[in-house]
Design a protein that fits this description.
Elements (H helix, E strand, L loop, with lengths): L23 E5 L11 E5 L4 H10 L3 E6 L9
Antiparallel strand pairs: 1-2, 1-3
Length: 76
């Protein structure tokens, strides 16, 4: 088959200016603008997992933290 080979996209941390590989996915939503079942995703490297989770938790947005390679289908 001609074309580019299938590649798994690199998962990069969502923290500002961080280019490290993410190992965690923070699943969240803003109840003011998202339906209850909708989940957005921020990716986090080990160094930024706690700070990103704290930011979302303080606002009541954080729902779950899962391994970055186990993001549920349909989330994002």
């Amino acid at each position: 088959m001609i074309g580019t080979p299938d590649r798994t996209p690199e998962l990069i941390c969502s923290a500002k200016a961080c280019r490290d590989t993410a190992s965690h996915a923070l699943l969240w939503n803003n109840p003011r603008i998202h339906t209850p079942e909708r989940r957005k995703v921020w990716l986090a490297c080990p160094a930024h997992r706690e700070s990103l989770a704290e930011f979302l938790s303080l606002r009541g947005f954080l729902h779950d933290i899962v391994p970055a390679d186990a993001i549920p289908e349909g989330v994002g």
